[in-house]
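Input/output pair, single chain:
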Amino acid sequence: INNIKGTDANFTGTNALSFDGSNDSISANNTGLGAGNFYYQIIFKVQTGGGDYIFADGDTATNNRWLGLQLKHPSGLSFSLDGDGTKTTETIFSEGQIADNDIVRVTIKREGSTLTAEGHNFTQNGTTNHAETNSRDFSGGNTLTIGGISDGSGIFSFAEFEIFSFKAGTSETDLVVN
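Output:
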């Protein structure tokens, strides 16, 4: 996409991975990011769905130590973090701030004990921010799943969306997944 000030750009023909919500997912080794600083950024196109996970990193089954991004269509987009069996969920986009075919970028990061989440809806030109103190350790699992969530024995809750970019690491420049 050529970035020309004052003109709209279309994502038509842009390389993307499409997930149809039926058994589509990508699994990789757990990033091991949950004990200290972490950084996740994803750019994707919203599609119809229910309570589906866009991605989850960590152990969602045995140790209850994970972080995930969930589309609760049409009520919004949220992230959940569980470091000890007590899952907390925070809203990034609420109902009306995100819709089918919107292209959004979500960044979730922790520096020290400050956890921040930022959402930018390119289609509706809206930005949201969330900040909290959180030093819970969600590392220790064995799976990073994009397109669903793993319960240890298999992947379920498949999401329907198109992904343009996914990054994970300890900072924007120190990436383990790109």
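Residues 1-5 have pLDDT under 50 and may be disordered. The first strand starts at residue 17 and ends at 20.
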